[in-house]
Predict the structure.
Amino acid sequence: MKLTPEQIEQLFAFTRQHFVEYYDLQLELIDHLANAIEQKWQENPKLTFDEALNMEFKKFGVFGFSEVVEKKQAAMSKIYNRFIWQNVKEFFTFVNTIVAFLVIFLLFQLFSLQNAYDYFLVLIGTIFFIITIYAIYTSKKTMKLKKKQTDRKWLLEEIIMRHNNLFLLFNIMFQILLRIENVENVYLRLAITCLFGLIGIYLYVIIVKIPQKANEYLASTYPEYKLENL
C-alpha cells in the first residue's frame, strides 16, 4: 500500500509541527517516514496511518527530530565551509595575488608612518564594521523576501546567509588590536597588515563571490531548488 498525496501533505504538516522548518530536511524525513509507514503496512495492514506514523516517530526518542536537525546542520556547515575555502583558493590567481600583495605592501607602508598607525587602524576597523552590518542586513532581507515568495526555507541557503554573522567576531578582534601598544615592532605591524589583508579577501569572497554562485551551488545540491527557481 502506498501513501496518498493527502497523507504526504500530512507528513509535511507533521514535520513542521515538530519544529522542522527547513524544506530540504522535511523532504528527507518525509521520505524516511513514508518508507517506514509503508513497511509497517506490509507487516500489519490493519494499522492506520496515524498509528504507523506515531510508532515510527517514537523511534526518534524524547527529543523527536531535534537531533536529526542538529546533525544535518553540522553536515551542511561542513559542506558550506568547503565551499567557502574552495572559493578562497580560487581567488588566488596570479593577477589577484599580485594585487593583494601590493595592497598589503601599501597598507604596511602607511602603518609605518609616524603617528599614522592608530588612525588607519580605526579607519579600517570602521570600514569592516560597516561592511559587516551591511552584509547582515542584506542577507536577512534576502531571506525574508525568499521565504515570502516561496514559503520555503532551505538549510544550506540559510547557512550561506547566516554565515555573515561571523563577521561580528572580526570586530571583537579589532577591539583587541586597538589595545596593542607595541606597534613599533616591524614584525607586529607586518603581521597585523597581513591579517587585515586576509580578512579583506575572506570578506570579498563571502560578500561578492558566494552570492554570485549561491543559486548555482544550491541547485547542484538540491534538484528541487533548481525547479523552484526556474
